[in-house]
Amino acid sequence: MRQDRGISGDAQRLEQLGWMLFLKIMDDKDLELEITKDNYVSVIPEQFQWRNWATNAEGITGDELLAFIDSNAGGNRGLFASLRNLNVPAQPKRAAIVREVFEGSNNYMKSGYEMRKVINKLNEIDFNNSEDKHIFGNIYESILQELRDAGNKGEYYTPRAVTQLMTQMTDPKLGEKVLDPAAGTGGFLTAAIDHVREKYVKTIEHEHQLQNSITGWELKPVAYVLGLTNLILHEMDVPDYHYIDSLKREYNGIGKKDQVDVILANPPFGASIADGVETNFPASYRCKESADLFVVLMLQLLKPTGRCAIVLPDGSITGEGVKARIREKLLTSANLHTIVRLPQSTFFPATVSTNLLFFEKGSPTKEIWYYEHKLPAGQKSYSKTKVIQFEEFAPIIAWWNNREENEVAWKVNVEDLKNWDLDVKNPNKEEEEVVISTADAIDKLKKSLNKTAQYISQLESLLS
Questions:
Q1: Taking a C-beta distance cutoff of 8 angstroms, is the pair 142, 226 a contact?
Q2: Which residues make beta-bridge pairs with 76?
Q3: 1.20.1260.30, 3.50.50.60, 3.40.50.1820, 3.40.50.300: which CATH number matches 10-127?
Q4: Exposed, middle or buried: residue 97 (CB in 10 Å: 0-12, 13-18, 19+)?
Q5: What is the C-alpha to C-alpha distance for residues 228 and 80, in angstroms, rounded to an integer?
Q6: DSSP class of residue 177?
Q7: Over the stretch 90-129, which tens digit does the pLDDT of each residue have?
Q8: With a threshold of 0.70, does the pTM exceed it?
Q9: Minimal CA–CA distance to 162: which of 376, 330, 396, 378?
Q10: Tens-digit pLDDT profile for residues 432-444
């Protein structure tokens, strides 16, 4: 793809790869369903099925291939135009998925010859072969990690260790409806699928229940396609995954039938919201911070006894005005029982202090347990090559059901909070002794004296 003049940067490469992977995986899935289900017919028109135009290594290429993908002239619709307008009354949900993928995607490649090379490389993977699928699963995880380095695309990726911990501690069960309203590439949803399959799915009927209990919403087109593909790779036949802006969901229109048992999410923070979106929310909670609005939305989307685990930055757990009112709503309508405080570098390359909040709707908060997760011994920060590992959470998991205060865990009575402020520092933390050499101390003193001399000189100039 780097040889193609039409593609600029990792974000476009990932978008290009996204729709191509989607078509390839859909076709492999269709081939499987044609064998296992009587009278199954793919929703993708025959001429656009991957097997009929892409699998032959010596097949269409160059300008002919580009015309096949992009053409919309002379009544001959190309692949994109046809799939953006797909309508299959017999399979509306599956057709809608294909339509949504191509409504939000683009073909950036300008060389049909380079595109043919990419297609031939993808054809080396058989998604109906369990070994291929397992290997590709690991490759796909690395592709999703690359999003962190593609400009602002990092907002789509939550480290796998974090999604695993949040899912395990929330424990979604068979038959419970699980939602991620800011689903990105589907990390929380796939963690929930793996968790329920491993712990609760024992029969075909159980699997059918699971298939109908996982829902995701995502606004950004690249993340949506990658997330959808991720769910298909996790054996979701018709993913309940939608290309929508969750914050535009009519707040007062959310009723019992829309509410879910479990929400797992890392809502975007510091992200710009569409003009006027805040007016969808009650007046006392209106703001421009997307993460804060998501907290209000999630409380509305949870069933009366629903459970939730979300990632929030320090900026959302402290602050006055509307931020304090949102936290008051959270603490009075749900039991915020645990906050796990993470190191600044957890979401590398972003350096934002983040927290994992676990709460249950239905009864007000009386006390909050805090747990401060520490970096591994000898490690100064997380990085691209040293990402957070699930094994590091073993002390938290061991502590979870046998809670005691210690040097990294403490309890706070909600009545002791000032202005509902949740940014409570660790009271058990010993002050670290800083040891520096005599030479360093003299050097620091010299710099300090030099700065002082500069300030005095500036003041004298101003006075004169």
A1: no
A2: 73
A3: 1.20.1260.30
A4: buried
A5: 18
A6: -
A7: 999 899 999 989 988 899 999 999 999 999 999 998 887 8
A8: yes
A9: 396
A10: 555 677 877 888 8
